[in-house]
Give the backbone structure.
Amino acid sequence: MSTHLDRYRQVAEVLARHGLGALVGISGLDRWAPLGALAGNPAERRTAPDHLRLALEELGPTFIKLGQLLSTRADLLAPEYQAELSKLQDSAPAVDGDTVRELIRQELGAAPEEVFKSFDPRPLASASIGQAHAAVLPDGTEVVVKVRRPGVVERVNEDLEILRNLAAQASRRWEAAAGYNVAGITQEFSETLRAELDYLQEGRNADRFAENFAADDGVHIPRVVWACTTSRVLTLERIRGVKVSDLDGLERTRVDRRALAVRAAGAAAKMVFEDGFFHADPHPGNLFIEPGGRIGLIDFGMVGEVDEKLRDKLGVLLVALARGNPDRIGTALVDISVTKRPADRAQLRADLVPFMALYQGRQLGQIDFAALVTRMLALLRDHHLQLPRQMAMLLKMVVMVEGMGVQLDPEFSLAEVFEPYARRLVLERFYPKVFAKRLGQAGMDAADLGVELPERLRRLFDLVDAGGVEVHLRAAELEPLIGRVEKIGNRLVAGMIVSAFIRGVGELTVGDKDKWRDWEVPLMRAGLGAAGVLSGYLAYTARRGKRPGRFS
């Protein structure tokens, strides 16, 4: 921490002045805090969440973005902190016209009046990272030109380096910081913010959304003008319409608000369950309703992805919720979290019983989805279970979509819109191809184990024969060991059942070659896995000069 001393001092002074001495202490900033400042200013009659918000605003773009991110993490922060940090406004004084003109000339090779038919030097909006200007292309197309602020990358990189160092200090000084993986959260935040700084990435995100919704006439994704786009300048087709939050404007344009709520929620469901790529910040300022009710979506800097692993865990959680089994729900929540510390499963099960009362025995349309998600996140927070970033962004997006839908139509039910998609996700877990693929992978894992396990066992028995083994384990080391044993057990069981499974499927599909073709390759792999375990076991016992034991 020998560089950026002035910035360290500034961060320490601002936090201390707002009475956040504990935060200064656990992050290692106390060495730079002014003498006597850690007690804060008792004359300031504000709450701790108020002071945190004010401190982040004073510290600038990086810390404002960090606060905005934390405001969405109900699994990490108490509601009063979330509510206060959600007030953070990402605004800044406009960059002067001459500076913008010079930046465009550097990036696009010519002054704005040469590149565009017209260019308005007065910004449409000005934020901490960049500002937007209205312009018209030579062919008459209206566009919005986003220009990144000069020097913002250097300042953000400096602040991100400082945050990483502070997170490392906090992880060593504060046990809870290590349990919540503060260093990992900081790293994820760094990646997210750097992606927002790169307008080329935002343009690629817009193109991906446009491709996903190419067949949907109800959603309008602006076209990227790549000839006028660089990492510092982004030119997009301009979207005009009424903001989705302007209810009077929607009434004047005779938009069916109830149908609009369903269409917007359907678009969100498509992003999550079909495309696996979603807009992570669908606040009212990013949605415009065009004449006829078409939804125009803007601002693609913050996006999320649902990969196959997360999709599978989401399916497990949905199945557990549908069955209403607190043990299964608890296991699914623990499995989906990224928390390092072990969970108190007995207490988690007990706390899940009142949680399940929110939806059990009710019709789908009667479920308050936002309340369900909010309570589940509070449950995770109480048990120190931290969600992966993509899942946290997904839940935040879902809650925002439901809030928008209820504002448009008080009788709106997000659960009814999401139900067909969620049901399909659950059923996919039992499709023959998917199931066979999983068995095939289990078989290949078992084959690897069949080669690896005999040698490991031989070394273990050699140690035992030589006089025994003395083992020293710390509590923290037990969990990965147990996890390894569980994996070995799972692989062995998978290998053993595959043979019987192949025969059963073969009998079911006699005379139907097309059905068998879907199963044949993965099942053969699974069978090889089972054979690998058996052959490895026999080879090992032969080397030991012993007869193989019986499986019971």
Observations:
- The two ends are 60 Å apart (CA to CA).
- The chain has 22 helices and eleven strands.
